[in-house]
Amino acid sequence: MQKDIYEKIIGFLLGASWAIVLFGALLTFKIFINFGIIIAIFSTLLFIFISLFFVLAIDAFLVNKQRLKEAQKQTKLLEKLYTS
């Protein structure tokens, strides 16, 4: 199955978002470790939760695109049944 350009871009952004979550969490922990282990863990978890929200938002774009494509297929089938 061939993907259109929209799905390729969303897939790339989704992969990049996961990389940002992983490396950003590590970087956040290393920056805040100077202030104490509790603050470092709390700030890292906060960063992860916020970043995962953006990953879910990007994934929602992909799901909505697939839902639209499926609805268009169903509409064509219904129109074909209606004209018959």
Fold and architecture overview:
- The longest helix is centred in the last third of the chain and has 47 residues, at 37-83.
- The protein is mainly alpha-helical.
- It contains 2 helices and no strands.
- The protein has one domain (5-83).
Strand content: under 5%
Q: What count of structural domains?
A: 1
Oligomer: single chain
What number is the mean pLDDT?
Answer: 91
From the spread of the alpha carbons, the general shape counts as rod-shaped
| Parts with pLDDT < 50 across at least 5 consecutive residues | none
- SSE pattern: HH
Q: Sheet with the most strands?
A: none
Distance between the termini: 30 Å
Number of helices: 2
- Radius of gyration, in angstroms, nearest whole number: 20 Å
- The counted number of beta strands is 0
Fill in the keyword field for this structure:
84 residues; 89% helix; 0% strand; rod-shaped
Summarize the structure.
The protein has 84 residues and is an all-alpha fold. The protein is 89% helix and 0% strand.
